[in-house]
User: Fold this.
Amino acid sequence: MRRRDEKFPENGFEDGGGYMQVKIAKLEAQFSSCAGKEVIRLSNIFNGVSIYVNGFTKPSAEELKELMAQHGGVYHTYQRSNDYIIASNLPDTKVKNMSLSKVVKPEWISDSIAANSLLDYRKYLLYKNSRTQPQLNFNKLTATNIKTDESHIKDEKDNIELNLKYNNSDKQINEMLGANTNVSTTDTKPALNKVNTNDCIAKTAVDPNFISEFYNNSRLHHISQLGAFFKQHVNDLRDASDFSFPARATLKSKILSSGTSLVADTNFDNGKVIIHIDMDCFFVSVGLRKRPELRGKPVAVTHSKGSKPQTKREGVDRNTEFNLYKQKQAKKLGKVTGIKEDEIVFESRVDNVGDEDSEYGSLSEIASCSYEARAKGIKNGMFMGPALKLCPNLQTIPYDFDGYKEVAYTLYNTIAQYTLDIEAVSCDEMYVDCTELLKDLKVSVQDFATALREEIKDKTGCPCSTGFGSNRLQSRLATKRAKPDGQFFLTSDLVEDFMFGITLKDLPGVGRQTSQKLESLGHQTCGSLQTLTLGLLQRHLGNKTGAQLFDQCRGRDPNPLTFHTIRKSVSAEVNYGIRFETNDQCFLFLKQLSAEVHSRMQHFKVLGKCITLKLMVRAEEAPVETAKFMGHGFCNVLNKSTNLTNATNDVEIITKEVISLCKKQKINPKELRGTSCDVKNQIKVEDNTKNPVTPKKKSISLSMNKSPKHGIKSSPVKRRGRPPKSLKNSLTIAKSGMDKFLAGEIQVKEELPVQTVPEIIQDEKPKRADSNPDGLMSLSWEKVRELLRAWLDSGQAPKLCDTRMIATYLSKLVAKKDIDKVYILMNFLKRRTHEIGLDIWIEVYNYVLEDVQNSMIAVYGKKLWINN
DNA sequence: ATCCTCCCCTAC
DNA sequence: TAAGGTAGGGGAGGAT
Assistant:
């Protein structure tokens, strides 16, 4: 929106040294002096240093936290990429997969303090001649706006814990147990519970370190967390951006000078250009950066490196167990297709698995495999054993979870230089609406894609593929065609023929069950499915799915990209290593799981109302000993949920409900093979783009309707007071401060330190200036209002930087769903700017309003209601 | 009809 | 050995 800026008179809007910034600096000075009452600042040795503590250390994590605060450093509860990792020892499994170049002994901290200066951390590396990984340097990013945005975002937030650590979990659990049960703590119980929490690798869920150990190694956990992280990253980038993209100019000149420019642009329907970007076999590509000699060979990422057959475990019966899986699948397919279940032919992942002690017996799963491996028939998710059978010279490489995150960062930030109309799908995949971007660049789609892919490959060392289309479905299918390392443009003239040949299984949302069902109806391709009527599809597949399929097989997709995501549920699940002897062990684990969910909820600042417990219980026919080591085996699955009257994030309530749900099931703890704890949301969102959101006095649940087209016209006006009972899934943004008065029905358990200064009425306690790269968000909104008032009264011409700052702040409030505050501040701003009556101040108001309304649309799908 | 609850499916 | 998580959409069937 550079144009927006240009319409302001130049003199009043030059950047830098704005009124607000000066004011904020003063405020921060005040804060740091009054913050001194809480943390006494002894030195600034650790200025610019941030640490993350991994495992048991001396001094303890708590102590290190305090030391960092006293000496000017930053302590992170969750690991961030710039952190020094403080550790005294690390489990082998962890060491294998992480970059060790910044793993430092705690003595570095204590010695530095003793010496009163920051000592060279390299002298304190835990692993001396550590094979330092060629880490990508985020600061190399060219776009300056990204650089600044990202650095502050990294400091300010990090909702996702990629490296889950439970510094407090033992303590918490012991406290909980001490309070109300007779389960002994680890040191009083012999045998099973006797675990050295520091250097023993957790084997089963009985071990207090198990969750952390497991999550550190779980690819699925990482995939999930990374996905959530980058969705949030896009949210954050958008919140912080002024939507000017200086890097576009560079890209444009690069494209023009490359001389390949095609003049004629390809035409897309409805003028939209959607690009889908997907890294090629992501985990493998990242891994190959360190193993270039394996390029061109069949490669798989897996935990198992091992070739040698293992000794048999007592009681394992692969045949019985695998047959149970196949029977169940056959039964399901029989039901779905109407074919007799014993006549159904289908391929299963338990096919071709060798005996436990055979060369091909490994049940380790392949997370990702190279195209050379795929050529041999190997697929992601396949067991290692059968894969080796297909390709005996399959090379394996280990996971590199840090690497995935780094590459993903680079990928996202590369795109974000040019546009923020991004919908994050996962860490290695996204949709981008390029309509506006391409208009601005005035280059062909082809040249743009070529340049973009080249830049991504240069920066990450990993190839990606892109597809273009006029909607998300088309672009996605185009990417599939483009792979590997290619690009494809599904122009509107191609769509019809292209769709005709697409396999139904390739449609997003059509998995094994659906495609089997469709096949039993006699259809394998989109072209063939097009002969079916909407009604028939709906009868067989349900209303929604049928309608979606009807559209999809014609290349239609009415769903727009969603740039801003809102989370609706939080859960934690472990279906591996669950082996309990007693109920107490089971409940203890559920407490840990609840604590995990609770801590995630805290990070997302959400409350939830509906708590679901999922249990996997060994099926009666299934062997007690599972085929896969520590796996869940063949199980029955149970889901039980409770609906609380009030949304909460109280760990004790969650724990209590979860355990009570579990108790009701009367499961023999020895038969338990998996557990999950899920807290769901209940914000309901109103459709209705016409009716603006007005802040509700009594309810913070904003009513919105999800289905955009089957328009439901519920007016927001009738939604005073408590929301209808019917609203389900309440996960509400945690409120505090003023909102407590507005949100009568929500209980918020404050987990703030007790010594809250009474003068500070508001929720957000000001942070210290040095940990506060972004001014306004760290202030209470009332402080912001004061600042705003002072600015308006200053008699000076408004500057662009101040205007932007306010706009950004308010947009962030929108994203945080602090609509009440936005409402007050916007009306305040409107009133005061209009009182002043100068055009330039009116422009300021309009500028801010535009940003706020854009955010409102992104978050709620409708505009904020403003007085008059 | 419309809900609630449990369950299934899909995707990464 | 092995690390089978997580969020979201939606359907079936009973309760209201």
